[in-house]
Amino acid sequence: MQTSTTPQATTIKELSSALRSHMAKIGYRPRTIQLYGYVLQELEDYCEAHNISAFTTELGNQFVWERYGMKLGDQFTSKTVNHVLRMIADYQKQGKVSKRYSRVYTEPSQAYAPLVESAVESFRRTNAAENSVRRYHWFLLRFGTFLQDRGVVYFNQLELHHVNVFVESLTGLSESTVRATVGHLKRLFDYARDHGYHHTSFSNVLPAVRYHSHRRLPETFTVEEVERILNSIDRHNPTGQRNYTMLLLVARLPSHSTCRIISSPSEEHFVL
Questions:
Q1: Which of 5, 165, 201, 251 is spaced 20 to 30 A from 119 at the CA atom?
Q2: pLDDT (tens digit, 0 to 9) for every residue of the chain, 272 residues total?
Q3: Cα–Cα–Cα angle for 67, 99, 83, nearest 5°?
Q4: Domain ranges in the chain?
Q5: Model confidence, pTM
Q6: For the domain 113-205, what is the CATH code?
Q7: Residue 75 near residue 214 (C-beta atoms within 8 A)
């Protein structure tokens, strides 16, 4: 089991630097570290401009709101931004972060294969859509790789700490992905218990994942909402200037176009 101590970093820059080093140590790819580094650098610049030295959750929320015009954790906020802010908070508290598990295992071990085959066939008999069956099969292969990498050859060797580590590896994934993965785990654990592959099911220790179905985008925006959208764009860089120009053009299109601002008896609305 991986152990670590709370980092000695005391300032934002020290914490950011220590997190980058830790990511490299646990196997994050250089391209990913560079991508996350952009967000960390923006956080450093923000803190320097506001004369802030210590990282707090409140600071993270304030930074995301003022820099991106979004709330931390919102479905519309960049997954990278959400993940980086969670990572730096976790690293500050625990001295470590969990690397998301991404390697695909294409062939189950001889000991694990019978469980994979029977679990998939059992799920197929529930009249599940074939795409759902394929996703479940892929998950079983992925989970098999995770177990194999930790020396779990037979499924009855699975212990609670293995489950905890795997769940931790989901940190930073989207809400829908985490919910689907936890659902796959519950189905697998219950099946394994009921068919003699394990003496117990760990379903009762898995976290409950709240899921909010995607709401449709509104078909109209008030003039005030349009202005807020435009004002939330950072125009201090080429990308922001481009996005601002595109949205401004859409907002000012003539009335016969697909997107326009129209007048109603009560107020003006921006129509998609």
A1: 165
A2: 344 444 455 788 999 999 999 888 887 888 888 888 888 999 999 999 999 988 888 888 888 888 877 777 665 556 778 888 888 888 888 888 866 544 444 567 788 999 999 999 999 999 988 888 988 998 898 888 888 888 888 999 999 988 888 888 777 667 788 888 899 999 999 999 999 999 999 988 888 766 554 444 455 667 777 787 778 787 887 777 888 888 888 777 654 444 444 434 444 444 44
A3: 15
A4: 12-94, 113-205, 220-271
A5: 0.45
A6: 1.10.150.130
A7: yes
